[in-house]
Amino acid sequence: MDTERYIEVIDHLVAAARGPVLTELAASPARDVLPGLVRKPWRSLRSGAIAARGDVPDEQLHDLRIRAKRCRYAAEAAAAATGKNAAKFAREVAALQEVLGELHDAVVADSWLRERSAAPRIHETALFAAGELVALQRDAAERARTGWPAAWKRVEQGWAGAWR
Q1: Over its length of 164 residues, how does the chain's per-residue pLDDT go in tens digits?
Q2: CATH, residue 85
Q3: Overall number of domains in the chain
Q4: How many C-beta atoms lie closer than 10 Å to residue 36's C-beta?
Q5: Which of 23, 60, 117, 120 is a Cys-bridge partner for 130, taking CB atoms 3.0 to 4.6 Å apart?
């Protein structure tokens, strides 16, 4: 913290805080500008959801979850200035993200349990318990795989009214 580089960075931060560099959009009302800034993550989420229809690999649904997270954060930031419809949209995206997160967690847990079950000299009681847990994780993953399209439908419907 006492290096020349650190002091230089702090000086730049202080200068930026005192006189931020603004674009021409800064003169426009936030309510008008922010929805446009959510469009890019929204389009990415929408294209990912369209591509994920049908029987797709779990990795593709994990990518969709990441896209949902980005869209959610953008919508939450915009909602502060644009109103309750945008906040509702952000909550719907969060619900989609949650379903896809449950899928990812179940897939990772299933894999972890299978790896541990293959260990040499594992006790048969532990092996039985691991098998039961794998079954539970598979059920959870299947519920999420079949449930995410309904969550997506709510997100898609919410987009249209989010910026009114």
Answers
A1: 779 999 999 999 999 999 998 888 889 998 889 999 999 999 999 999 999 999 999 999 999 999 999 999 999 999 989 989 999 999 999 999 999 999 999 999 999 888 888 877 778 888 888 889 999 999 999 999 999 999 999 999 999 889 87
A2: 1.40.20.10
A3: 1
A4: 12
A5: 117
> Is residue 60 a part of any domain in this protein?
yes
DSSP assignment letter at 57: -
Give a yes or no: residue 6 inside a domain.
Answer: no
Q: Look up the pTM and report it.
A: 0.81
Q: Which has the closest alpha carbon to 42: 90, 84, 102? A: 90
Answer yes or no: are the C-beta atoms of 86 and 162 closer than 8 Å: yes
| 67 belongs to a structural domain | yes
Is the residue at 20 inside a domain?
no
Contact 89, 155 (CB under 8 A): yes
Dist CA 116 CA 58 (whole Å): 21
